[in-house]
Write a structure and sequence with these properties.
With 279 residues, the chain is an alpha/beta fold. Helix content is 44%, strand content 20%.
């Protein structure tokens, strides 16, 4: 019988620090058993005799593969269709018509949306549908594109398949299901190509000092991601979002998150929706 490898407090601290430094995720003091449970199999499968040895491998692995496995295990990818659905209505009914009333936006060829921390893709495809519907309602034939990014390669590979369990898709509105999804087998739906082809999935760490984007976005969705970051990291990310948003652009965050109402970079519009300030 093999004895179970246990995680000491000192080992936990080191791993938690690494996760914070590389990915911004603040594990705090209460996640010891979660980290131990999620990583034990990785440690054993890798043939490491202790978490300490595994940690040394993490910091010495130049390929980045060990860190990929780590973040796939540690990050929380919970997402679902219909999450905070009023954001999509607001996008269609207020944000898109508002943008269209500005001269600068009307000169654009494309509505550009960034879905930052897209997890397994439900939010990005819903955004693609909402953008299409919003532009159609405004009777505008403008192209649009969604850049959907996440740190988790495992989540992104699910997203790229665009195939979801029927019971999950059914949380979205029925008219949209009829128009934009096709049934696949008895219990799955696939997102139709016209919606799918507007979404580009890419792996991107939000902790990067700079983002490699040429063009500015009109809308950024970064919902239920900053909740895992500490105040300092959130502030830094907010400044980067400001830099990559076009004048008058919008930032959507999760309802349990806040930028604070006196944020110099963003004007509060309604819960979890902010407009870029011209600072
Ligand atoms: C809880 S999910 C939220 C998904 C979706 N935005 C929603 O609201 O349903 C959080 C996502 O943030 C991603 N994430 C966490 N830290 C990240 C980082 N440093 N860079 C990029 N993505 C990150 C996770 O991989 C995860 O998929």
């Amino acid at each position: 019988m093999t004895s179970e490898i246990s995680l000491s407090h000192a080992e936990y601290k080191k791993i938690a620090r690494l996760v914070y430094d590389r990915f911004g995720i603040h594990l705090g003091d209460k996640k010891e058993s979660l980290v131990s449970n999620r990583l034990r199999k990785v440690v054993q499968a890798g043939g490491f005799s202790s978490f300490e040895k595994y940690y040394n491998h993490l910091i010495n692995d130049r390929s980045g593969k060990a860190l990929d496995v780590l973040i796939n295990k540690i990050s929380t990818n919970l997402t679902f269709f219909g999450r905070e659905a009023e954001h999509f209505s607001y996008l269609m009914e207020t944000v898109i018509p508002g943008l269209l009333s500005t001269d600068t936006f009307r000169r654009e060829k494309k509505l550009r949306i960034w879905c930052a921390g897209c997890s397994t893709g439900e939010e990005a495809y819903t955004l693609s549908i909402a953008a299409r519907e919003g532009l159609a309602r405004a009777h505008v034939e403008m192209d649009y594109g969604i850049l959907a990014t996440d740190i988790s390669g495992r989540a992104l590979s699910v997203a790229e398949k665009a195939l979801y369990k029927a019971e999950n898709v059914e949380k979205t509105n029925t008219a949209w299901i009829r128009k934009y999804y096709s049934k696949e087998g008895a219990d799955h739906y696939r997102v139709k190509d016209e919606i799918r082809e507007k979404v580009l999935f890419r792996r991107l760490n939000l902790m990067r000092p700079d983002f490699p984007f040429k063009n500015k976005f009109h809308v950024i969705f970064c919902r239920n991601v900053m909740i895992y970051f500490d105040q300092k990291t959130r502030k830094q990310l907010t400044v980067k979002f400001h830099k990559h948003l076009a004048d008058g652009g919008f930032l959507f965050i999760g309802h349990s998150e806040s930028l604070g109402r006196d944020n110099a970079y963003f004007e509060y519009m309604k819960p979890a929706v902010y407009k870029r300030s011209a600072v």
